[in-house]
Specification:
mainly beta; 2 helices; about 50% strand
Length: about 140
């Protein structure tokens, strides 16, 4: 038997307020966009920058944590796996989207909303989906 690996690690900034919703069965899910920016110097010595956008999906307890603590512009670390989502649109055309299903999330870069600093929140938000909520 061969083994596979599907793991993604990103550091970036939240692009908009995360959206918390529930499945028909009541399972919480939060989705948001994450921007990662890469900078480099061209061979001509020019400063170059490129931003890539990713759709992040968090489930269960991690969904609630993301909805509560994330806001537009917040720098975070996300670890998860790639997932292809396919559907047929109302127009009858087949659509495909690549998402990152979050497994772990860490707040980075200074103060969080409400004045709590990252160190205080790190234990709370550095959990895997399915773990017990620490408080």
């Amino acid at each position: 038997m061969t083994r596979g690996l599907n793991k993604v690690m990103l550091i970036g900034r939240v692009g908009a307020q995360p959206e918390l919703r529930h499945t028909p069965g009541g399972q919480p899910v939060t989705s948001f966009r994450l921007a990662t920016t890469r900078t480099w110097m061209s061979t001509q010595g020019d400063h170059k920058e490129e931003t890539a956008w990713f759709t992040i999906v968090a489930w269960d307890k991690l969904a609630g944590v993301c909805a509560e603590f994330l806001h537009k512009g917040r720098q975070i670390y996300i670890e998860g796996r790639l997932q292809n989502k396919e559907w047929t649109g109302k127009d009858g055309l087949q659509h495909t989207q690549v998402e990152i299903v979050a497994r772990e999330m860490l707040l980075l870069g200074g103060s969080a909303p409400g004045g709590a600093d990252t160190a205080q929140l790190e234990q709370t938000v550095s959990m895997e989906a399915g773990d017990e909520f620490p408080f």
